[in-house]
């Protein structure tokens, strides 16, 4: 009987935690940049969109254009998935064989492609916006790039662990 009570209390507390999480603002600080998720979860594709459109209110017509753009972009990404998988496999194989120079070169090529895709994406999305919205959008893009640079993700920066003191 005691185990049943404990399980019931646990279920109630989990349900309460889910309700609180569901009511949390979408731009809450802990999830603003961190985490990994898919389908719009923290750190997933939806996170980038959320950051790009921070402080921008889209009209219904703009939302429709954006939805059409996303559909086209998704189809393109699906078509390119085999090539991307092959690229990541090549990096993995180079690492496993100890060929760090090739692995670094391939990763740099991938990063360059990703940055080009981001630039193409932001340019297309920017074209949907009004001039006033574009100013905020440009500020949001700059903030994203600055944040990315804080963690050494820009070219030429090495990832280092803090020294224990």
Structure description:
It contains 6 helices and no strands. 68% of the residues lie in helices and 0% in strands. The radius of gyration is 21 Å and the shape is elongated. The chain is mostly helical. It has a domain at 60-151. α4 (81-96) runs antiparallel to α5.
Radius of gyration: 21 Å
Q: Secondary-structure element order, as H and E?
A: HHHHHH
Query: Runs with pLDDT <50, length 5+?
Result: 10-41, 153-163
Helix and strand composition category: mainly alpha
How much helical structure, as a percent, in the residues? 55-70%
Number of helices: 6
Residue-averaged pLDDT: 74
The rough form would be described as elongated
Number of strands: 0
Strand content: under 5%
Report the span from N to C terminus: 51 Å
**Biggest sheet, open or closed, and with what strands and sense?**
none
List the main descriptive attributes of the protein structure presented here:
165 residues, single chain, mainly alpha, 6 helices, 68% helix, elongated
Detail the topology: elements first, then pairings.
Layout: H1 2-23, H2 45-52, H3 60-79, H4 81-96, H5 100-126, H6 131-150
Helix pairs in contact: 4-5
Q: Would you kindly provide a brief summary of this structure?
A:
The chain has helices spanning 2-23, 45-52, 60-79, 81-96, 100-126, 131-150. It is mostly helical.
């Amino acid at each position: 009987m005691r185990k049943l009570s404990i399980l019931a209390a646990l279920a109630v507390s989990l349900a309460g935690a889910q309700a609180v999480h569901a009511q949390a603002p979408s731009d809450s600080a802990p999830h603003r940049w961190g985490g990994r998720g898919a389908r719009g979860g923290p750190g997933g594709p939806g996170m980038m969109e959320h950051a790009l459109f921070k402080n921008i209110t889209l009209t219904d017509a703009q939302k429709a254009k954006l939805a059409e753009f996303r559909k086209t972009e998704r189809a393109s990404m699906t078509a390119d998935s085999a090539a991307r998988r092959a690229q990541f496999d090549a990096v993995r194989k180079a690492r496993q064989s100890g060929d760090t120079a090739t692995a670094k070169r391939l990763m740099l090529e991938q990063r360059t492609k990703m940055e080009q895709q981001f630039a193409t994406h932001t340019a297309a999305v920017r074209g949907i916006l009004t001039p006033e919205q574009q100013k905020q959008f440009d500020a949001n893009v700059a903030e994203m790039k600055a944040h990315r640079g804080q963690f050494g993700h820009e070219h030429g920066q090495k990832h280092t662990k803090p020294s224990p003191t």
